[in-house]
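ugh ok fine here u go
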Amino acid sequence: MNHKLELRGVTKVYKSEGGEIKALEGINLEVKPGEFLCIIGPSGCGKTTLLRLIAGLEHPTSGEIILDGREVRGPSSDRGMVFQEFSLFPWRTVLRNVEFGLQMRGIKKKERIAIAEKYIGLVNLEGFEHHYPYELSGGMKQRVAIARALATEPSILLMDEPFGSVDAQTRNILQEELLRIWERTGKTIIFVTHSVDEAVYLADRVAVMSARPGRIVECMGINIERPRKRTSVEANVIREQLLRRLITEHKKVGLI
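structure:
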């Protein structure tokens, strides 16, 4: 099935006592089925807001989001979301966290356990099914969150700085794990990050957002053969190009 995602003129305005805040303006973006797209941009440019709109957790003020030819009007199991802060239920074991979305859909216990065990295996957490979140490292918690998002078998995985709170070594390991999962499952992934290095290593394309109101000012293809070397000449060239563009956007809002 063709799981193409299109954003057409998407604008988001928040109203407050002090007036209106335009978070996003005129976002036009097409994401191909199976693509790994990273989104980078200055702090406060609306990257998380954009993901929440795609997830259906918020609604655009104007414009439309189209998935498989239908407008996104709310959350659905065809879009799974992974947050930076893990968002696991502390009173549930690994197994019960992963099966949560399946339980909400009314899937019978035997079937949902089998599905949950499949995805626990996919993220290499066999043997930890009956552990609680407090017994896990940060990297392991994020693997549980990824397994939980995958268990409902979404066509698109939305990831909001998922590795931002773990140490550098764990982050590299999780990047490798995510690429392995992406290649095995063929999911479309939209991945928000502050790290240009991470974007260059992971993405097929990198969308660069402007300072608020957030617009997409550039989409750069990362035409580097996989598996990639983090310090290759090609990676360094693209990294420098993206950094220069980000510096320009930061200067616009006085961040540097």
